[in-house]
Structure formats: structure tokens, C-alpha cells
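A student in our group prepared the protein record below, which I am reviewing. I have pasted the whole thing underneath without changing anything:
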Amino acid sequence: MLSQIKELLSNAQLQQKIEEATNLAESIKLIMAAGAEKGYNFTTEAISQILTDLNSVESYELSEEELLSVSGAMMSANHTNKDIDWHCTAGCA
């Protein structure tokens, strides 16, 4: 179902209509109607949950510490603004 909703949301015309919608309920109705045209059968609750999940993922920003941890580098706890000591945490020579 997520892939079907993402497919619908990739449509520029539907995106514009959703942006012009005055509230979430209207956006959901637009998505349900677009889905029905393609033979999809979504519940209001399912679309609402997926939109909430998608918005959470899109709006989440990683902190500097999180970025460093996923990149394999970690900043030393003892540093000043002028002197940052980087330590490799992923098998560096």
C-alpha cells in the first residue's frame, strides 16, 4: 500500500491539488479518489497514518553527532572549537 500511495503522490497534478487543500481530511479524500481511479482501495486511517509517517521521515534532520556516527567518524569528547580531534571508528590504519 505504501508503494501505491507513493506512486500517487509522484503525480504533479495530485501534488498541486494536495498543496491547495485546506486540511488533512481534504488531502486524504483527494488521495482516496486518485487511488480509486487506479483500482486501489485505501481507508482514511491508512492514508492518514502513511502521510504522518512520511512527514516524520521527511522532516527528521540528523544532528552532527548522528551524522558522524553513521559516517564512521566520531568526535573526541575533549575538543575546543579551534581543535577538533577526529577518531576513526571503522578499522582505520
Remarks:
- The longest helix spans residues 44-59.
- The longest strand covers residues 73-75.
- The chain has a mean pLDDT of 76.
